[in-house]
Write a structure and sequence with these properties.
about 30% helix; about 0% strand; mainly alpha; single chain; 2 helices
């Protein structure tokens, strides 16, 4: 998953906040703004790609895979 950082300074603020023990909710920027996206990108930079975002589907298990339009609870 790619992201584009507009402000390296704000990205670095996010990284520093994580290193200082702050939480995700300590983002000082307006939700949905580019500054918030840059801060959160820095805050999460040391985390791997989330399982759901992997293109290799390494976390998929056929027993729990649901196809669009199907009902997994229907027998």
């Amino acid at each position: 998953m790619a992201f584009f950082v507009v402000s390296q300074a704000i990205f670095d603020e996010g990284k520093a906040a994580k290193a200082a023990g702050k939480t995700y909710s300590d983002d000082p920027y307006r939700a949905g703004s580019q500054d918030s996206a840059d801060w959160l990108a820095g805050f999460t930079a040391d985390e791997g790609v989330p399982r759901a975002a992997r293109s290799d589907n390494a976390g998929d298990h056929p027993a729990v895979k649901v196809t669009a339009g199907s009902d997994p609870h229907r027998t």
